[in-house]
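Before we proceed, please read the two lines closing this message. Tell me what the token row says about the fold.
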Amino acid sequence: STAILLNQLKELRYNGLILGTNNFSGPPINEMALTALEGSIFTAPQFYSASNNAKMIEFGNKVKGLYGKEAQWNTAVEYDAIYIVAKAIKNAKSYNGDEVRNALEQIGDFDGLAGKYRYSPNGEWVLELAVRTYKNGIQIPLDK
């Protein structure tokens, strides 16, 4: 797994830059290889549990209260997806697949819990990503 590889790099005293994706931002990788992730640079949705954003804190508290676990980026993305589809159904005034798909294409930008989404010309929803790192075992935006 990625966590094993990251830990082996540290054991071998690799000191170079480690680049990654959103999987670096949550379990199980950050639980199994937190020391190895120190100083890594990775992309992830805007949502993360250590954020100061009131919406993210409220969502994180609800998830933790219901499930006893920290909310992760993928939970926030799935939450946003439900709202995007619900908005399309409302705009389409229909549950017909073709009509809902057409309404999805017309939504434009969507400001969600995980960040800003836009509908791309190739028919995909694209989420604006953040660039993060770990400093003293804490996930932070890279610019801090």
